[in-house]
């Protein structure tokens, strides 16, 4: 399917571009590889290509009656959605790890830059950006017809940006070398740090995929995941957390299916699922048959998100004699006694929980170190 | 203006001295009793840099201002010093082996290392503690670093004494922090000097921007920074600097050759040779020049060539004398006929060229990819600047050959292939030439280059798109997933083309190259001890090709299931007769083949048992061998492959 459609798209674009089609070939191939174009259904794919062809071939369309009519129709169709659009959902739609449109396809940034470097691509790129934002703010962006339209329109910006980049490189070729050198130096700096921390073997072979993992982890701990900028940095600044926490917390919504948390968090689950949710004095993973647990060594936190204000009962499953003080966002909810057997303990906050990032605090009393297997959420109706 | 210049210079010296006290003694003259904090050092570094820029840029006389490039390089030195002080390493690895020379020379006045070895806990190392013919303890290390560190050792002594005068308790034994810090700082500064030399030499032959790029790439993109900051007591920053100084001096004086110039060059060469013996290859530079002159001018040049050659030779001998004296003292020989590591340490007839350059075990290009364009740049360097490039090429090639023939071509616990340190400056010139050529290409094909620059960005999306709906919300994991998918398809880019060759030879994905190539059953340190484990803490999964199941825990063993046929790689340095013992659990009939030669069928019982086969030396080859296990009647569990050498006479 994809190959035939790409061929069709190329022909359409070539016809529309006339003598400039060769210049558009490389950007088009990159666009196909670096965006979710190939994941669109045939209909949306065709629409995307048609829009791309029109937007890149007829840049003077902007301002014509046809464009004004098209834009008016788009605004009329999109207005209800614009009203519904939530900033938080938009941020997740664009920057969530791994499915945010800009996180997954950083080429879209290049396309957006096209609006700044090429006036003739401004109208199409602007419309594309709007369509992308609307699509990203929808619950299921990947299946939105708007995404196809966005990818089609944004191609005008991408083609313009790559053309501008090529022109800049022709004038100042050292910039290309500087970029490559910068990337190699960054890789080397991160590799030295991985090596310094003994994350890779010092006298043995190493899988470079592991090197990539550790280097990415170090980079993320320093500045957050680059492909989630600036959402992760802003999120960290707003909540007083490191930007790296964005990866997991952005989509860690209670009561929602994966990558939401559903109704419980298995604390001893795979690192990438829970590490970003936990903070404070959690111990290492320990067995507590039939589950796996973590020791509650001291004051420990669990972060989760709520999509909307919700009346929610909170609880945890633990074993080991002792008592645990529970607080939510610093507000004491009560104290729960834990026993020898693995059992569930529930607290019902006397108020609905606000939407956004919430912080559950567990603090053991005295020297007790209960083992906690799960934190769970019960929706109160 | 003049008084402002003088005042800023005095201030610069004052802040510089305080900085020296901070870096070497960990104290400030302003508050000698308090420990230096990161913020305190950062303020001093910023002040020092501001004064430096003021004095040598803003207040400099006409034509005396330092260039913007130098200003940038000095600016980059400041955070390097901060890292050196608070996140850097000191001793470790081979570093102590070099440091004992300077400590013993200046504190004990001898080369008896018994006390130093005991201090550092080497009492149990028979190879180090066994007395030599002269009653000394062995050392396989060169004395050059001690020579280069000597002024810094003295600075450490002086600052230590000053701190003691100010009331602190300071260890002045030579084992204490103050001397170690001073020598480490020395290495860092020698490394920085190398960066300046690279910049200066490259600027003589290339555009200023390219010279700066080459200097920055060598500093930030290679192992140089590591050995300046994390392992400063190893010889690599020093050796890079000493060899770089030779090349810099050679290029500077060759336009107007003189006896004095050759004498200076000879002294520098001798010193470089005492720092890293293989730097002796640099003798080719003046040697080829003298021969070329003789060839061009025939008899007319003979007297001057002889004079210059004699000056060169005499001063090389003087420069290298400390090493000869050290060998005489330690081993009772002025010149060793083979490295002190042993006769078989360097095997020039059996180089591991592909591994040295591309293996994931510190392969030069694999770990520090910036060296690949540096090597490629030698071609345009020779074509466009023949006089500069042509003499450097044999040195680069010989050094590469020697390094790939070294006993452990991967250089033990190294960051990248540190033994290429004498080539840092020559390769920086290659890099500059590559950049120059690449610039032209960028100008001719900017659209293609723009697209190429965006390929990694597009690849990120392409590699994460297909299929998997449960990709983890975890950037590092995604980076691993993307890399694994890429490696499976085309190999890790920094292992190209060696991983492609591997894939073609073995029928495995090119990504398997990373873990399969660079390990040995028996060869040198860190070998597998003859065993391939199929699970557990030391899972050698990288040496398994196809047919093995995932690791399972069965009857107290970590094992893998083989249902019909499975292939493993047995990496050897030498073909030799081996007994292959495989721990299995049947029941089944199991056959083993080595490189396509059947070794026979063995009946395996229901419990864990060890089946064994003997394979003649003729069946094996150097590098990877196919060992195929085939079960004829149902699946078997395999715990390990144990390869056993025949007793040697």
What's the quaternary structure here? Answer: heterodimer
Order of helices and strands of chain A: HHHHHHHHHHHHHEHEEEEEEEE
Class by alpha and beta content of chain A: alpha+beta
Count the beta strands of chain B: 10
Q: Can you describe this structure?
A:
The complex is a heterodimer of chains A (381) and B (649). Chain A is of the alpha+beta class. Helices cover 50% and strands 20% of the residues of chain A. Chain B is of the alpha+beta class. In chain B, the strands form 2 sheets. In chain B, strands 1, 2, 3, 5, 8 and 10 form a 6-stranded antiparallel beta sheet that branches. In chain B, strands 4-9-6-7 form a 4-stranded antiparallel beta sheet, with no helix packed on it. The longest helix of chain B is centred in the middle third of the chain and has 30 residues. Chain B is globular and about 95 Å long. The relative contact order of chain B is 0.06. At the A-B interface, helix 2, helix 9, helix 10, helix 11 and helix 14 of A face helix 9, helix 20, helix 21, helix 22 and helix 24 of B.
